[in-house]
Design goal:
Chain lengths: 233, 293
């Protein structure tokens, strides 16, 4: 474990923040770090850039983290896990809620490397749509219609010409990923989709077995990014 | 060439997955069993335990330090999970308990087990593991009570942080079928920036390469004194380590922390052992205790 200092915090609303560190971590989009919020717990978080995490408050530790002050220390282990595989062609990014975090990083990374990027960014309400300006070519969708189109990301994905994309990257709540998986399975394109998965973790390095999925793969070390055809929803 | 026999269990090679590593789900046990000779589950007790708060596992230059705190579901639900295990290698269920009676009671939950391993050595639990495993009389009582309740082989997993010969003999007198040595050794790490211990439990168990010479000496000492088989565990990382442990007297070895390097680690070691036995033209089982002559 090593420590980084918090350099800047962007607080979007009472539940969401991006925390910037004073040092850049050698990493790839899709990888995660184990963040030790001193006095609380150590939790796995996807990097939203080489020097930041974007966090939603869901429990005691994440609540403390989004309210952290500039200058405080955070313990870091990592970066760990298998990242997204990039494409040089056309990319479709599908984000649901806080699932946008690793896709912010991927978006920056692909910007200089691929032909075009389209983003479908959905959430339950407007409040959960954070940092939209990070995405350039983005379509917004909310379940309650408080911003953008009313509906779900799946509604928008169904209107897309799937064959025109070389890679499709998805991150969001489990139900959303499951619905997308079924959709891509029907179109027989799972081999060009990538899903960033989530699970309770302890070690982060593939030994403890806390994050093993039904198919025996470990989210922390075999993932967190899996190709659609490696998964079994 | 790699086959060994451990208490009537036929193992396709001497490498056993150590307890606490990928051992909570049948699916991950199965993945390990594809190339391991046998697999040991995560330790299970009568009641569910949440374990300690994260950070619970950290890696340092020479291995791992963990204080997971025996996080496990209760025996009944763990048994339901283990029913799903497709037996391509023997399944050894690791048990932890706070008394001899509890240990004995646990065995009835696991008809799918091929053997039981008694955790008498976990270094970071109050009134269980090492705390009861340091008392020779109690170890003997626990082993003999478990033996009276099950016909399956019973392994006593003891710690290098005890007088291993004394505890090993006590287990043998209690009619243990084999001794497994060692569990992790007590240790800790401090973060120099925050100036606090890293693990939430402050101290934990050290495993990995750092503890290999210590575990090897335990195997050597036990081989001199006991007549039951010994399973060596502690820091085994390369195929040479396995040969070394067998020469010291181990019938089989357990591997845990090395899985950090790859989930296909057993496959890689197996291939190396095959190459080794082709070169020596000896069965691996012929090596057991050879360094003592």
């Amino acid at each position: 474990m090593f420590s980084v200092r918090v350099e800047k915090v962007i607080k979007y609303n009472e539940n969401f923040s991006t925390i910037f560190f004073d040092s850049y971590l050698k990493s790839y989009p899709g990888q995660f770090i184990m963040v030790n919020v001193f006095g609380y717990e150590e939790i796995p978080l996807s990097l939203s850039s080489p020097n930041s995490v974007t966090v939603k408050a869901v429990g005691e530790t994440t609540r403390a983290l989004i309210n952290i002050q500039t200058g405080e220390l955070l313990g870091i282990r990592g970066p760990f896990g298998r990242p997204f595989t990039p494409t040089s062609d056309r990319a479709l990014l599908i984000a649901g809620g806080i699932g946008a975090a690793p896709l912010f990083y991927l978006h920056d990374y692909l910007k200089t490397r691929c032909k075009s990027i389209k983003v479908i960014y959905g959430a339950k309400t407007q409040e959960e749509l954070i940092w939209k300006s990070r995405f350039e070519n983005v379509v917004i969708v909310t379940e309650d219609g408080s911003e953008g189109i009313k509906g779900t990301v799946l509604d928008l994905v169904k209107k897309e010409d799937i064959d025109s994309y070389s890679k499709i990257y998805c991150c969001g709540p489990k139900e959303m990923l499951k619905a997308l998986y079924k959709h891509f399975e029907d179109f027989d394109v799972l081999n060009k989709t990538e899903f960033s998965m989530e699970n309770y973790m302890r070690c982060g390095i593939g030994v403890c077995g806390s994050c093993v999925m039904e198919n025996g793969l470990r989210v922390c070390a075999d993932g967190p990014v899996f190709r659609g055809d490696e998964l079994d929803f | 060439m790699l086959e060994v026999e451990l208490c009537n269990l036929k193992l396709k090679n001497p490498m056993v997955l150590a307890s606490g590593i990928l051992g909570s789900k049948s699916s991950s046990l199965y993945r390990m069993a594809e190339d391991a000779g046998a697999v040991v589950t995560k330790s299970v007790g009568l009641h569910a335990r949440e374990g300690y708060r994260n950070p619970t596992v950290i890696n340092y230059a020479h291995g791992l330090i963990n204080a997971v705190g025996l996080a496990s579901p209760n025996a009944e639900s763990f048994a339901r999970e283990l029913e799903k295990y497709v037996k391509i290698a023997p399944l050894i269920v690791s048990l932890y308990a706070f008394s001899a009676e509890e240990f004995a009671e646990l065995t009835k939950f696991f008809p799918m087990a091929d053997a039981f391993e008694l955790n008498l050595s976990c270094p970071h639990i109050k009134k269980a593991g090492l705390e009861i495993g340091s008392d020779a009389e109690l170890v003997k009582e626990i082993v003999s009570m478990v033996k009276s309740k099950t016909k399956k082989p019973v392994f006593a997993k003891i710690s290098a942080m005890t007088n291993v010969v004394e505890i090993g003999k006590a287990a043998e007198e209690g009619k243990a079928d084999a001794i497994v040595v060692t569990n992790t050794l007590k240790g800790m790490a401090i973060d120099i920036m925050s100036r606090k211990p890293i693990l939430s439990n402050i101290s934990g168990g050290v495993s990995g390469e750092a503890i290999k010479p210590i575990a090897l000496k335990c195997v050597w000492d036990l081989y001199e004194e006991l007549s039951i088989p010994i399973v060596g565990v502690g820091g085994i990382t390369t195929w040479k380590d396995i040969v070394e442990f067998m020469l010291a007297g181990a019938t089989a070895v357990q591997i845990g922390s090395a899985i950090f390097y790859s989930s296909r680690y057993f496959y890689s070691l197996k291939e190396s052992l095959i190459a080794y036995t082709r070169w020596t033209k000896e069965k691996l089982s012929d090596l057991i205790g050879k360094a003592h002559n």
